[in-house]
Every structure is written in structure tokens, then in C-alpha cells.
Design brief:
394 residues; alpha/beta; Rossmann fold; 3 domains; seven-stranded mixed sheet; five-stranded mixed sheet; 14 strands; 36% helix
Length: 394
Amino acid sequence: MLLGLVGKPSVGKSTFFKAATLAEVEIASYPFTTIKSNHGVGYVKVDCIDKEFNTKCNPNHGFCINSKRFVPVDLRDVAGLVKGASEGKGLGNKFLDDLRGADVFIHIVDVSGTTDAEGKQTENYNPINDIELLEDELNKWFCNLLMKAWKGFLKATETTKAKFSEAVAKQFSGLKVKEESVKNVLLKLNLPEKASNWSEEQLMKFASELRNESKPMIIAANKIDMEKGEENYQKIKEKFKNYRIIPCSADSELALRQAAKAGLIEYIPGEREFKILKDLNEKQKQALEKIKQNVLDKFEFGTGVQKVLNSAVFDFLKYIAIFPASANKLGDSKGNILPDCFLMPPGTTALDFAYFLHTDFGKNFIKAIDARTKMAWGKDHKLKHRDGLEIITR
């Protein structure tokens, strides 16, 4: 699973990325600071099941703070988008290539209106333009690829019974577009049965809907704590009612995580409070108080960064977190308690999970045991979010 951070230059993508990963990336207020895509590991937050067994976990991957389990996900911060990217302008081709493998887009938008279309400092810019620009460029990108499939399909139908959905899925295979998604779009739009009868407008409509279906997008309304941030956020919510829009302050999240990393405060990402652990100088106190008043006390999701990541994985992609666990033995051979937590796609069965853990577990599957209830599950049992189970094999 890969989450792609997108948007124009200088909106805070790299700050969001660093806050989410604590990776060392170059951050500056000029276009194309991020020339190469930054690939790192962020974390989604899950209520750990350790507290239900009155114990404390020892994760192999990620970490756990007060029974809040942080499970790793891949993040990619790509070069800033500029108008004409779909035609190769700016770093357009690289920008789009870097997004091919993304399962969901996180569009970082500067809702303060202090950066223009090219990411340069300005005042009173309308961030609605940025959302429309990104939509337009992504739709054109998909349409350009679709045209290749469409022309090839028309040529193939002269001699074969080629299926349009197969042709499109093959053309978009590098973008993780499945034939099922193509069929869903065809049913939804009710276009003419013969693709050869589609107009340019209908092709663009199909491309746009296919992009929505296969690359869902969440909007992080960044710099919400700056002047005009809330005002512009409300305008965006009104304009784009079909989008999931989350108020966000990547700068605040980065400051809190760095303070926690330095041992100055205790802070659980995504929470709306923190605890001071050491004596702070006046400047540090003022900075933390400002974050508390302007962000944590005002917004439901705190800084919003953790909420964005969780929404992308659990609300959009519908993934579930599964703990390999036995009710009788929560530890592994090294004594680590509940060492693993895996993110699995929706519809995962007990047998699917067995194969995920090891091919031999799948081949020799007998049953799965619920760690909480000790009930036995068959191979077709569909798993739920935060299930704990043990795989029993021959």
C-alpha cells in the first residue's frame, strides 16, 4: 500500500511528510525543493488489543504508546505540481510517474492563501484553484492514457472480439487499475455501448471517473491555523462536498513530534493534548501554548496529520488491522508480546491471512482460533478490524 502526497510547490507537502515520518527531507519555500520523490514510512494509529489481555505489547514494526499501536505504511512525497504537468511541463512527467503506484492521493492544500499557483509567496490566493488544477491535470493524465487504449481497442475490434474493459485495464495496469474498476465506471456512467461512438467529452468523463474510482483522494487543508485558513477551509468544504477534507497543521504536528522525540513532552500523534516532561525555556513554552490554543483546542482532529493518514487507509482503502495472537500465548519465541500487526485489504478471510503469513500456513490450514473468544473459524470466515487470531495447521 502506498499513499501519495500531491499538490503544488510550497504548500507544506514536505513538512507533512517529515511530520508523518520524522524523516530528514529538504524543506524550503521555493518551487521544486522536492526534485526526487521522498519515500518513507508513516504510521496509522490503531487501538492495540494488548490492554484487553492486561499486558503490554512489544512491536517488531512500528511502535505502541499507551495501547495506541502505530502500524507502518508507505508514504511518497512527490515533486510539486504545476499547470501543464500532464503535457510534461515543469517536472510533470516525473510527477506523474511517481504517482503510478499510489493507492490513494493525499492532496496537501495551502488554505491560508499565501502561495500562488506556482508556489510563490502572495496574499489572498484562492486555494479552490489548486484543487481544480490538480483534478484537471490528473484527469488529463488519465485521458491521455485512455486514448492509447481506446485507439488500440478500436483497431483490435476490426479483427477480434476485444473487450474494452480488458483493454483499458491492461493500459492502466501500471497504475494499479483493475478491470473491476473499469466495469464499475462503465455501469455508473451509462455511456454508449460501443466505445467507437464516444465523443471526446465522454472519453474525458470516463477518464475522470476512472481516476476517482481507482485513485481516491483526500484533501489535507494545511496551514489551517494561519490567517484566513479557517475562512478558506469553509469555502472549500462548500465547493467540494464530495471530497473528504480535513483541517491540518503540518507545522504544528512536526513541532510536537520533534519535542516528543527530544523528551520534552509526552505526545501521542493524533491526540489533542500533550504532557510537559521537562523544564522548558520561554520560547518553547510560548510555541507549545500557541499550538495548543490555535490548533489542538480548536479542531476535532488536533493537527489533522494523523487523521489524514488514518482516513486514507481505513476510510478510503477500507483496510483492516489484524493481530496474529493466541489466547494462551501472546508472545513469540523471543518473548515479544503481540509483536505483529498487519494491514490487510477488505474482504480478507482467515485462509487469506494464513497465506499472507506463510505459504505453508495456507496450504496446511485447518482452522483459525479467535484470541478473544477461543472460537474456531473456518477458512472462509471474513476478518474484522482489530481481530486477533491464531492459525492452526496440519
